[in-house]
Specification:
The protein has 81 residues and is mainly α. Helices cover 79% and strands 0% of the residues. The chain is built from three helices and no strands. The N and C termini lie far apart (49 Å).
């Protein structure tokens, strides 16, 4: 369990480091959210997905952050159109 958490943290930090070059914050967050999902789906191609508790927490935190970031963008689009 601890090893899994460490590897997830390492891959997250690696993903965050590679995304530093891209200036758009919304795009960064979406990519950070989608990469773990792709890894989960790739690891469970033959059977139903079994997501660990730490993966669920990680995705929930990123999803909440994405929702908060995109809410302001949604409000800006709504007022302009």
């Amino acid at each position: 369990m601890l090893w899994l958490l460490f590897t997830q943290l390492f891959t997250f930090l690696l993903d965050a480091q590679t995304m530093r070059a891209v200036p758009d914050q919304d795009k960064d967050l979406q990519i950070l959210l989608l990469r773990p999902q792709v890894r989960i789906l790739q690891s469970t191609v033959r059977c139903s997905p079994r997501i660990s508790r730490s993966e669920k927490i990680f995705l929930a935190v990123l999803t909440a952050r994405l929702k908060r970031v995109t809410a302001s963008t949604y409000q800006q689009l709504r007022t302009c159109c």
